[in-house]
Specification:
- The structure is a single chain.
- The chain has about 300 residues and is an alpha/beta fold.
- The chain has 13 helices and 9 strands.
- It has 2 domains: about 180 residues, Nitrogenase molybdenum iron protein domain (Rossmann fold, 3-Layer(aba) Sandwich); about 120 residues, Rossmann fold (3-Layer(aba) Sandwich), CATH 3.40.50.
- It starts with a helix and ends with a helix.
- The structure holds zinc ion.
- Zinc ion binds next to loops.
Length: about 300
């Protein structure tokens, strides 16, 4: 049961000694970016989905440490190491998802660095407790979060205000193909439906205009982090077998027999399966490249080319 609940544990298979040793630091994402007009500040980000965005926005003015990467195991119940906690202690800015997703980061900050500035995606977007925590899959939340991060950076390093505005503009430009792909799917996918092995992609599916046909009982179990009842799993398999939904969204960082069984049923019934991940995979060039590649898979699965 725990295996299924450990939604993101697939990546734990590659849990390496390096991943256990604490946060990974990345300097700037673009070495051709102009030099920072002030001293770079240390920034710690709980998870790499937000970490890449922060790196793009901070540019040469921030030294970004990201605690949870694709190889760190399950962000939902990640246990920070002593080294991770030290990263929070020394940061001038901490960026978290919030709404319970990275509670360990909130605790590390409040116990060790009460004076630090914290930008939380949940707070920025007024997301209430109990809501779907996968906020980086909501395009509006990502935009609002990026602006909140830029605002905070400008307050922390006022001499680099213009620099941060330029980084924000560059990020918006880089995000244009992402919004274009969402608009393309939304325009072409009217009336299309999906089922999902878990809720990671639900905000994006909604932004794309897709209707969620995952059986309600199954959805409720996932939301409450409990094992779906056999009847709910059977209902989901039946809907896939009879092609009630156009695509199945599969979080490949989910471990366990139930999601794998649903994928097998979808494949037998020739319902296209779209693979998505919780964290940004190794080898993705950027947040937007990762997201665009998944959206392109979705467009193909929906017959939108
Ligand atoms: Zn998740």
């Amino acid at each position: 049961m725990k295996k299924f609940l450990s939604l993101c544990a697939g990546a734990a298979l590659v849990f390496s000694a390096a991943a256990c040793s604490g946060a990974t630091s990345s300097g700037t994402s673009d070495s051709s970016a102009p030099a920072c007009p002030a001293a770079a500040i240390p920034i710690t980000v709980s998870v790499n989905q937000w970490g890449n965005i922060v790196s793009q926005l901070a540019g040469q003015c921030g030294t970004v440490s990201t605690v949870v990467t694709a190889s760190s195991g399950d962000p939902h119940d990640y246990e920070p190491t002593t080294g991770d906690i030290a990263e929070f202690t020394n940061a001038k800015l901490v960026v978290i998802n919030g709404v319970g997703y990275d509670e360990w980061a909130t605790k590390a900050v409040s116990a060790n660095n009460s004076g630090v500035e914290v930008v939380s995606a949940a707070t920025v977007n007024d997301v209430q407790a109990g809501a779907n925590p996968h906020l980086w899959y909501n395009p509006e939340y990502v935009t609002a979060m990026s602006k909140a991060i830029t605002d905070q950076l400008k307050q922390l390093v006022p001499n680099a205000s213009t620099y941060f505005d330029d980084q924000q503009s560059a990020f918006q430009t880089a995000m244009k193909p992402y919004f274009a792909e969402i608009a393309k799917i939304k325009a072409g996918a009217s009336g299309k439906t999906y089922g999902a092995t878990e809720s990671v992609f639900d905000y994006m599916a909604q932004a794309c205009g897709l209707k969620n046909l995952t059986p309600q009982g199954y959805q409720n179990s996932i939301t409450n982090e409990s094992e779906p009842a056999p009847g709910d799993i059977a209902a989901f398999n039946k809907d896939l077998s009879s092609k009630q939904m156009n695509v199945l969204i599969f979080n490949t960082q989910t471990e366990g027999s139930v999601p794998n069984q649903l994928v097998a049923t979808a494949k037998t019934a020739a319902v296209p399966v779209v693979n998505v991940t919780e964290t940004m995979p190794e080898g993705s060039a950027s947040f937007e490249q990762w997201q665009i590649s998944q959206l392109e898979q979705l467009a193909t699965a929906l017959g939108l080319g």
